[in-house]
Design a protein that fits this description.
about 270 residues, alpha+beta, 4 domains, 3-stranded antiparallel beta sheet, 7 helices
Length: about 270
């Protein structure tokens, strides 16, 4: 009778403690939307450790408490890098705020081969070095004023990163990269501003000269088409000017003399 009592007591204790023991020895892997959980086995006493071949993608999975759960974001993730004091071709320090957008394509391979610090250890320094080398090829005015230089830097770094990712077999996809806007020192900003004003003035003067040249060429083409001598063309333009002034409400007096007809334009009427 006593044996039956102790046996029943033992079973009762087992039933009561089983959930507690289960919770103490196990752990639930439950990834959020857009994440995968990579399981890394780390047995306490026996068994083989390492990364499990399949991640937990949806739902939940119970594992031993010793198993490490690594949550990997498989959505496109944007990383910002502040680049400080990168020298241009003419020796001016420039600051940039670059942006890299990456997407993980294989979470298990990423963790097993490159670890949790895959970005800091394998991507960030590569971006920094490639941007530094690309900036050295351009002068400060090209980078700070002309967007073509920035586009060239973006393209060079992007192509380099794609090649690097393929060569190292890093299981990520480069979605976008941009070095951003250059930020030179204050003194250099003023010089760039002055240079931009000078370039604008030069362009304006050039366009003005182009307009004058085009007008002169048009007049000369008209004169040749009408078989007029330069003196005749000048006389025609003179007549046009008189008609414009005297024919728009002006009170002109014409004097006839040995040198031809000359208009006298009152001061109040003259333009």
């Amino acid at each position: 009778m006593d044996n039956l009592f102790f046996f029943s007591l033992f079973l009762t204790v087992i039933v009561i403690l089983s959930p507690v023991v289960f919770c103490c020895l196990t752990y639930e892997a439950n990834p959020d939307a857009g994440f995968e959980v990579v399981l890394v086995d780390k047995p306490f006493f026996f068994g083989k450790g390492g990364v499990q071949p399949e991640p937990v993608k949806t739902g939940s999975e119970w594992t031993w408490r010793s198993t490490n759960h690594i949550h990997v974001d498989i959505r496109p993730v944007q990383f910002k890098i502040h680049l400080d004091g990168f020298m241009s071709k003419d020796g001016v320090p420039l600051d940039f705020d670059a942006v890299v957008r990456l997407r993980v394509t294989d979470s298990v391979s990423l963790i097993s081969k490159f670890g949790e610090g895959w970005y800091e250890n394998n991507v960030e320094n590569e971006v920094i070095n490639r941007v530094r080398n690309a900036v050295r090829k351009h002068k400060v005015n090209e980078i700070a004023i002309n967007t073509i230089a920035i586009e060239a830097i973006d393209e060079e770094v992007t192509n380099g990163l794609v090649s690097y990712i393929n060569e190292t077999e890093l299981p990520v996809e480069l979605i976008h990269f941009t070095v951003g806007k250059a930020n030179p020192p204050v003194s250099i900003k003023y010089q760039i501003f002055v240079t931009a004003i000078q370039q604008w003035r030069t362009l304006t003067e050039y366009q003005g000269k182009e307009a004058e040249t085009s007008s002169a060429e048009a007049d000369n083409a008209f004169r040749n088409a009408m078989n007029m001598s330069p003196e005749q063309f000048i006389a025609l333009e003179y007549i046009k000017a008189i008609r414009e002034v005297c024919g728009s409400g002006g009170n002109c007096t014409f004097l006839i003399g040995e040198n031809g007809v000359s208009p006298v334009i009152p001061t109040a009427t003259a333009k």
